């Protein structure tokens, strides 16, 4: 589903378009519900405007912004329920497929059994499409009909764990072998994955509630402060008519901006609840991470130091000139900026490497799980080669280097252990040593080692997901401070304006005496 941008928000102002958008998520939105919600929202926002005694032009701005945001709030509510259902359906599907396949050993039978668990909806439809595809019996690629059928489900849900489960099932049906232990470990991993998903959403709901409380308290404090300032005119009865704190333009602007900012904080907090539960993302933008990888791998300290010196030199020169002209404070500022620029090459490199290491740590167990499943029917080198296409983007540069080393020296331990050697990932070396041992033993005698690898990978994946979830949860909790900061800025503006008028009235009162 597409997210609502500015153009979409304008279209959603028309009730029919809003109803169609809600229907895409499998729900119904009636005109009665829309009228009641709109009326309630406008009454609420007008009440806030009246509390702050906004002039009509300022109140009109807030009303217009509210009308634009309201359809987005509606869509976000239904998107949240939609994503939660998709997560639940995908988890149920994967678990049932593993259980059914263990009984029958046939993917088609497992698909038909799993289909019966679902009522009419997206999951039942894509399972039925996959069944029809298998029964048609005509593959269109080298992947085979089973993988092509499973791709229909993978494309609909976009969850990496679906691919891992499907790969295990396809390998088991095509090549046989004992996969019960691998299936049980995958089921355990799925259970942990479900718990983490629901726990993260629980924490985000709590944070969203706290954000609403923060907005309410910040609004009350801002309003109370204005009424206290307005009450101070009682100290000057003869000047009280000329002192109207609410009508001061600066106060009107501060109130307008505070209310608009609060609306957007609420919108951002609500939007965070609509996250795609199934999409496994890194904590940072992949473009930034790939640039960081290139920077770290091509880092030349002498060259970077020289570049930093060239950036800092004008500021040092300016500081020296300021000293000559006896401008001490300017010299201190320029000297500080120069020192920062002189040392920034170290800080930039350290930050890039730290962020990159964290992303590699999050991606490493995902890739290893795929390797462990591919090893059910492939040797180590073929498994690595097949894994590249589905591997996380951040790992692909290292995987390309790994394949180059394996082509040149396939039997050398260092060909494996040099994987991510420039980054602090303690588990990487031990897991790569295990892959080397499996390669030396051959897939026919490596069953125990493969199962042990899957177990270790599952533990790593659990730790990596917890780190990622903590990062997402922390970002959500940080929104709690936004209304507090906004209220603090508004209070400073209001108090400054209030004190200015107090002193002016005191001055005019002294002149009259």
Name its key features.
513 residues
What do these coordinates show?
- With about 525 residues, this protein is mainly α.
- Among the domains are: about 285-350; about 360-475.
- The chain has 19 helices and no strands.
- It has helices spanning about 5-10, 15-25, 30-50, 55-105, 105-115, 120-135, 145-155, 160-175, 180-230, 250-270, 285-295, 300-325, 330-375, 380-385, 395-410, 415, 425-440, 445-480, 480-510.
- Helix 17 runs antiparallel to helix 18.
- The model has no long low-confidence stretch (mean pLDDT about 80).
The computed structural class is: mainly alpha
The largest pleated sheet is described as:
none
Work out the strand percent: under 5%
Radius of gyration, rounded? 31 Å
Question: How many strands?
Answer: 0
Global mean pLDDT: 79
Low-confidence stretches: none
Number of helices: 19
Q: Helix and strand succession?
A: HHHHHHHHHHHHHHHHHHH
**Separation, N- and C-terminal Cα atoms:** 72 Å
Helix content: over 70%
Please tell me what the overall shape is: flat
């Amino acid at each position: 589903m597409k997210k609502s941008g500015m153009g979409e928000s304008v279209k959603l102002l028309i009730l029919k378009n809003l109803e169609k958008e809600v229907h895409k998520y499998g729900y119904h939105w009636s005109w009665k519900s829309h009228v009641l919600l709109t009326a309630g929202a406008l009454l609420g926002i007008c009440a806030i405007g009246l509390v702050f005694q906004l002039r009509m032009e300022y109140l009109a701005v807030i009303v217009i912004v509210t009308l634009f945001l309201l359809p987005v709030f509606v869509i976000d509510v239904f998107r949240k329920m939609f994503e939660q259902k998709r997560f639940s359906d995908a988890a149920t599907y994967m678990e049932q497929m593993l259980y059914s396949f263990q009984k029958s050993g046939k993917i088609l039978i497992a698909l038909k059994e799993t289909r019966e668990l679902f009522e009419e909806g997206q999951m039942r439809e894509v399972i039925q499409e996959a069944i029809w595809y298998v029964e048609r019996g005509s593959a269109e690629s080298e992947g085979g009909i089973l993988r092509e059928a499973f791709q229909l489900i993978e494309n609909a849900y976009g969850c990496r764990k679906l691919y891992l489960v499907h790969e295990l099932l396809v390998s088991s049906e095509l090549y046989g072998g004992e996969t019960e232990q691998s299936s049980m470990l995958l089921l355990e991993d799925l259970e942990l994955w479900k718990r983490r998903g629901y726990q993260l959403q629980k924490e985000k709901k709590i944070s969203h509630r706290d954000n609403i409380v923060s907005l309410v308290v910040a609004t009350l404090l801002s309003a109370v402060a204005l009424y206290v300032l307005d009450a101070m005119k009682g100290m000057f009865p003869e000047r009280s008519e000329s002192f109207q704190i609410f009508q001061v333009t600066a106060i009107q602007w501060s109130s307008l901006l505070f209310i608009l900012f609060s609306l957007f904080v609420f919108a951002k907090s609500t939007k965070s609840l609509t996250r795609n539960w199934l999409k496994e993302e890194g904590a940072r933008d992949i473009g930034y991470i790939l640039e960081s990888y290139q920077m770290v791998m091509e880092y030349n300290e002498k060259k970077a130091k020289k570049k930093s010196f060239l950036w800092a030199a004008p500021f040092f020169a300016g500081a020296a000139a300021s000293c000559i002209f006896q401008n001490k404070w300017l010299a201190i500022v320029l000297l500080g900026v120069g020192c920062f620029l002189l040392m920034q090459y170290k800080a930039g490199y350290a930050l890039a490497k730290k962020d990159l290491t964290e992303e590699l740590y999050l991606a490493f167990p995902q890739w290893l799980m795929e390797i462990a499943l591919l090893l059910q029917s492939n040797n180590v080198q073929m498994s690595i080669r097949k894994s590249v296409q589905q591997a996380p983007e951040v790992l692909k540069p290292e995987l390309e280097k790994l394949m180059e080393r394996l082509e040149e020296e396939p039997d050398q331990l260092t060909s494996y252990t040099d994987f991510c050697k420039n980054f602090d990932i303690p588990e990487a070396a031990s897991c790569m040593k295990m892959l080397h041992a499996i390669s030396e033993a051959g897939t026919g005698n490596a069953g125990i080692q493969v199962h042990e690898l899957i177990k270790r990978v599952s533990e790593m994946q659990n730790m990596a997901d917890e780190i990622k979830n903590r990062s997402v949860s922390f970002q959500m909790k940080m929104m709690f401070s936004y209304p507090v900061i906004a209220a603090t800025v508004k209070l400073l503006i209001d108090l400054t304006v209030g004190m200015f008028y107090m002193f002016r009235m005191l001055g005019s009162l002294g002149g009259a005496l």
